[in-house]
Amino acid sequence: xxxxxxxxxxxxxxxxxxxxxxxxxxxxxxxxxxxxxxxxxxxxxxxxxxxxxxxxxxxxxxxxxxxxxxxxxxxxxxxxxxxxxxxxxxxxxxxxxxxxxxxxxxxxxxxxxxxxxxxxxxxxxxxxxxxxxxxxxxxxxxxxxxxxxxxxxxxxxxxxxxxxxxxxxxxxxxxxxxxxxxxxxxxxxxxxxxxxxxxxxxxxxxxxxxxxxxxxxxxxxxxxxxxxxxxxxxxxxxxxxxxxxxxxxxxxxxxxxxxxxxxxxxxxxxxxxxxxxxxxxxxxxxxxxxxxxxxxxxxxxxxxxxxxxxxxxxxxxxxxxxxxxxxxxxxxxxxxxxxxxxxxxxxxxxxxxxxxxxx
Length: 359
Fold this sequence. Notes:
Elements: E1 3-7, H1 12-23, E2 27-32, H2 37-47, E3 51-54, E4 68-70, H3 72-81, E5 86-89, H4 97-105, E6 109-112, H5 115-121, E7 130-132, H6 135-143, E8 149-156, H7 166-169, H8 174-177, H9 187-195, H10 197-210, E9 215-219, E10 225-231, E11 236-240, H11 246-254, H12 267-270, H13 289-294, H14 299-314, H15 320-333, H16 342-358
Parallel strand pairs: 1-2, 1-5, 2-3, 3-4, 5-6, 6-7, 8-9
Antiparallel strand pairs: 8-10, 10-11
């Protein structure tokens, strides 16, 4: 890999990608960020990208670079103009879909940390060009081999409220939901972790990546085991690794990694491990798990409703469980829609957002 274009360079995936790119002498052709201009300027001085895209025109004068573009359209133009064979897409939310579609349509490989791309439009994306940067899917890929497979499992931390009393969760605030027990991530993914929407999305991603609906998730509080494969002979293998995204990023960038990326797992320091079920009383979104795995085209509905619901929760316009109510209501309302192409995906997304916003 000679060079990459990095979308979302100031988030945790982006920052770790730049660390590894420097280590592997991979040039950064372009950086795309939202509004964290201070960190962007530091990255520009170190990595010397040829082009930069930011979210807002109002920030343009703050960026220390001669070629700064603004807005979502500029990202697509940037991908078209790029010489790099790989796009690392670490954008958050629905915004990340169009760049994934653009890159794959040009035959570029996409190292994908944007869950929403596959959740919303997995049916229309060339999976042979996708490498997912995610500890769970990386774990599944690592474990899979030629043996006949029975079932795939991914694990969940349980999110900020896994140990709260259900009664207390009704009054949980946005800031409460951001207190993840195991690590620090962006707002959206942390809220999605608390509602378990994040894990529902990962099941959908796994469905598209590994072409099976025989997938489930369980809670493993220590986040040491990321994935398990159950084989037809009755045996199950598990993937143990520290909580560090550098491992899947390294494989995405290099294809194969032989040097140590993480310190080996210290089995004695782990102590006991336990697996717990994901219960719909605590995570109401889990009520649709079986249905959506059989109808993965409805991912566009869940994603659109969820993005509107998170915004409402942040503005204190709904309760914590109110978010799940909004999503489940929209899911029922739009249960019969099925996009035949990307244009219809975009239309459904707009209709769902309008419906949920009108409430």
